[in-house]
Amino acid sequence: MPVVRIPTVLRKHTDGDAKVVAHGATVREVFSKLVAQHPGLGEELFDGDQLRGFVNVYVDDEDIRYLSGQDTPVEADDEVAIMPAVAGGCG
Amino acid sequence: MLFGDVSQAIGNTPLVGLPRMSPDGYTIYLKLEGHNPTGSVKDRVAKYLIEQAERHGLLEPGQRVLEPTSGNTGIGLAALCKVKGYPLTCVMPENTSEERTQLLTMFGVEIVWSPASEGSNGSVRLARELAAADPDVYMPFQYGNPANALAHYETTAPEIIADLPGVAAFVAGLGTGGSVTGVGKRLKAWNPDVRVFAAEPEYGDLVYGLRNLDEGYVPEVLDESVLDSRIKVGSVKALTYTRRLAEEEGIFAGVSTGASLAVAERVCKRLPEGSEVVAMSPDGGWKYLSTGAYAPGDVERIAAGISGTLWA
Questions:
Q1: Most CB atoms closer than 10 Å: which of A19, A80, B22, B259?
Q2: What ipTM was assigned to the predicted interfaces of this complex?
Q3: Does B236 contact chain A (CB < 8 Å)?
Q4: What residue numbers bound the domain in which A49 lies?
Q5: Domain assignment present for A89
Q6: Mean pLDDT of chain B
Q7: Residues of chain B found within 8 Å of residue A85, distances taken between Cβ atoms
């Protein structure tokens, strides 16, 4: 089952859990299950049905903007990671 | 190679093949930016930030320069400002490595610390506040200054094209976005088939300790349209590849080099067999020795122990 990684800033909505298991064959389905389990995440992650600008989502480490967005397929052993956009650390 | 002073000795770095670590049928080359005068790719950026400001009349003789940096840009600016006569203030997260602090202090730089818990976002915020409050300072602002990407468009990319005209893909770490944007645009203008990939460091929880997502930040310099993909690399993987680079190829590099190399290896199979891939090595490992990143021992344990300072 896909595991969703929750960044520190959003763990207040998941009772502190850093990882949440959520079924789904696409990012959209996984997120719909995730928000159903933890409704507080809905407003943090979405503006309407679009992901907010400072929310980066990765499936198997790859940014879904360069895959198929929320239609990106999720395999059973994939990790879906949510990360806030931050300034780079190497500058 | 003869140069009149240090500011002219920037760039023209070696492009070095990795015959032992490249996947079968592909060749990965590293652009060794550690060979710049202060030891990082940021010498190119510092030179462009300062000289573009001089050219556009934004910087008066003797005027103080102020910049948010986690180290390399500060060190590059420090050397350049020293020879050009500008005093320099750097705003840095307080968890940056000891070597960087010592180098900056030696160059006579004034350091202002931003909270470690805010990461680079914190130094950007604090530097903006300080610059807004003091009209006498000039802030080049590498995260938003087109001169950053221009340095790579005009120098790094042409060097790669001259050395490796068959280059099929370019990989660089995502910090300010200057390398991927500048090099990527130039390579694609020259050959639209070139693919460009960003290796995004996966920072420790500490760096992600924003109070809310609205505190997120995407550098203005980054042009996301130039990217073919963006792949994140965790500390353990980056450190593993960095240490393998020393063991297998005899190259001692900083940890962000390992991240780019991991992505270069991953994307090879998306390219025609025989493809040549260039990965950016922003710096050598010297400035990170004190973090323990290269100490003997279990990589996972080392990565966990230094997750707060690894990318700082």
A1: B259
A2: 0.91
A3: no
A4: 3-84
A5: no
A6: 92
A7: 216-218
What residue in A sits closest to B310 (Cα-Cα)?
A: A89
Query: Quick one: tokens of A85?
Result: 């956009």
Query: Chain A residues with CB inside 8 Å of B120's CB?
Result: 86-89, 91
C-alpha span between B36 and B26 (Å, rounded): 27
Give the Cβ contact number of residue B67 at 10 Å: 30
For B302, half-sphere exposure in the C-beta direction (CA atoms, 13 angstrom radius) is 21
Domain membership flag for residue A71: yes
Catalytic residue among B7, B22, B42, B179: B42
Q: Is B256 a catalytic residue?
A: yes
Residue A90 and residue B201: Cβ atoms within 8 Å?
A: yes
Reference B173, options B71, B270, B282, B95; nearest CA is B282
pLDDT tens for each residue of A32-59? 999 999 999 999 999 999 999 889 999 9
- Whether residue B237 is predicted with pLDDT greater than 90 in this model: the reply is yes
CA dihedral B172, A19, A26, B200 (to 10 degrees): -10
Distance CA B283, CA B39 (A): 6
Domain of A23, CATH number, reads 3.10.20.30
Closest CB to B208 among A7, A62, A88: A7
Residue B275 annotated to the active site: no
Phi and psi at residue B304, in whole multiples of 5°? -65, -40
**Residue A30 belongs to some domain of the structure:** yes
List the structure tokens of A17: 């859990």
**CA atoms lying within 13 Å on the CB side of residue A25:** 0
Contacts of A69 (CB under 8 A, 6+ apart): A27
Angle in degrees, CA B10, B15, B19, rounded to 5? 155
Which domains, from first to last, does chain B contain?
6-39+156-302 (3.40.50.1100), 42-138 (3.40.50.1100)
Measured between alpha carbons, how far is B293 from B305 in angstroms, rounded to an integer? 9
Does the pLDDT value for residue B141 go beyond 70? yes
Q: Count of domains in chain A?
A: 1
Residue A75 belongs to some domain of the structure: yes
